[in-house]
């Protein structure tokens, strides 16, 4: 067996004026709960550190920049450093989503994988599938989704990586963090990160699992009342929330099963500024598609479970054995070739 105790750290409402350092204290509180439960890996949401600002049309660059982390190394960002220090002190690996402003001024919707045992960032991912629009709605009262305005599409692709030491009883320890085939299913776990809307795109899961990924991890900010943004029919708020939760669960369970990997999802949720609703539903899903654990609230909540990566072998070696059963000669249209 290859067991790991993992958790999604769901984060409830974060208002527009919330201070990052206060939000980070909430994240640390969740980390301490994780430590008490002997959790080894904690996944935080997308853009965890602030309110989900792409819902607002922000015209001042100075104002906009307050929602971003600047520079190359998030672990040294003064407001956020205490979280990484705590993760290191407790030897817990964390995935943290945040808005990244690079030194050359580009904005990305980013997440990092930080290893508690080494105190280093092992991998960085930048969101590929940016939803929403570049231009705001004409109606000033409308709730926007301006990710395409504030962020560039991620330019790192989907790079799977190893997390050394996470599986305590791994048969063979890897010597690098690169995902390689020689120890697949035996050594340190092979991981991948997605961010929110990416979870709805099977191509992203497939590129990771072609590299042997065993756990996909992602945070999300998913509006409960945003069917207009999808061009969908207008619905009563309760119906729209149910539909949003249904689709969120559906894509996570179906993609976990079809790609024979576990998945951990963490919501930023609740009612920001008392009026912008985001769904909860943070969960841990097994490689056969079953939900192991799921949030019961729309607030700060740790959703933890022990998982056994050996379970992935059923899908990876039988039902969805890529080497034996894929028919790549028929898939050219998917990549536009
Ligand atoms: N943050 C994010 O990617 N949210 C999207 C909703 C977009 S509304 C058009 C999601 O897929 O949940």
Automatic annotation (TrEMBL):
The keyword Hydrolase applies. Keywords: Hydrolase. InterPro entries: Aliph_Amidase/BUP, C-N_Hydrolase, C-N_Hydrolase_sf. One of its GO terms (molecular function) is hydrolase activity, acting on carbon-nitrogen (but not peptide) bonds, in linear amides. Transmembrane segments: none annotated. It comes from the Eukaryota. Residues 4-309 form the CN hydrolase domain. This is CN hydrolase domain-containing protein. It comes from Zasmidium cellare ATCC 36951. The lineage of its organism: Eukaryota, Fungi, Dikarya, Ascomycota, Pezizomycotina.
